[in-house]
Amino acid sequence: MIPTRQTENGKREVILSAHDITVAFGNNVVLDNLDLDVYRGEILGFVGGSGTGKSVLMRSILRLIPRQHGTIRILGEDYDQVDEAKRIELDMRLGVLFQHGALFSALTVRENIQVPMREYLDLPRSLMDELAELKVAMVGLAPDAVDKYPSELSGGMIKRAALARALALDPDLVFLDEPTSGLDPIGAAEFDDLIAQLRDTLGLTVYMVTHDLDSLFSVCDRVAVLGQKRVLVEGTIEDMLEFDDPWVQSYFKGKRARMIPDRDSEQAAKTHYVSGTRFPSGQKSETI
Ligand SMILES: Nc1ncnc2c1ncn2[C@@H]1O[C@H](COP(=O)(O)OP(=O)(O)OP(=O)(O)O)[C@@H](O)[C@H]1O
């Protein structure tokens, strides 16, 4: 089931729309007239070969790098056409988790989470403290993690703390750049579960750049594949498996791929997996 909010005419609400996006660095055209829609309440997995431009697209959407052409609409508003006040309002609707967490090492978890609050809001310190503690609980960290420095945290805890910071302003849409990279299989599966839980409880929309097949199979409602400088195909995992393209076929059906668990039935719990991949949390390793 894809939990999406419907607009009044019954259509799924597009929360982010990238249209006709072209990004080039000198003569190196990385994205060429790319189109992509993200729907409210979904987890979209964004995949593609190394160097195809996944990070470039994410950074372009976030206006961290310029584009030559194209329109970005967030919550129906054209990012380039709105006034400064509206742009700030839209920025507050977005949260970002960069690839290695990117926490400020000189700040505690509490202070890291409060960075966006200080930037965008004018709140009393006691309220910011309460909010930081709430976010820490929300991402499944122990209460005492709030006053630790990043150097005192494990890799998985850093990802959670960075997610807590991305959630600091209660965004509608979060961008996650390879959130499970560097985590062990159990930590990665737990992180996937957390993302799915936040989608279900907060109605969060998630744009996730990933190489992690397990995340794609277990939590993504939809997948988009970047190739040939554009979105080559988008749809369900089943759509990917049927799509006639050598890269897509080898990615989703290759040695590292596995059977699709039936996510809507109890059979999922019994699904056997190809050796070498990780398992949804709560399942024991079982190989065929
Ligand atoms: N700031 C930049 N200046 C010049 N070229 C860049 C810049 N950022 C990215 N590129 C180029 O854009 C292309 C796409 O890079 P990008 O980092 O988006 O790939 P990716 O799909 O995220 O790869 P990976 O999966 O390996 O992280 C590469 O050829 C890269 O060298």
UniProtKB/TrEMBL annotation:
SUPFAM superfamilies: P-loop containing nucleoside triphosphate hydrolases. It comes from Hoeflea halophila. Belongs to the ABC transporter superfamily. Keywords: ATP-binding, Nucleotide-binding, Transport. Residues 278-288 have a biased composition (Polar residues). Residues 262-288 are annotated as: Disordered. The lineage of its organism: Bacteria, Pseudomonadati, Pseudomonadota, Alphaproteobacteria, Hyphomicrobiales. This is Phospholipid/cholesterol/gamma-HCH transport system ATP-binding protein. Residues 16-253 form the ABC transporter domain.
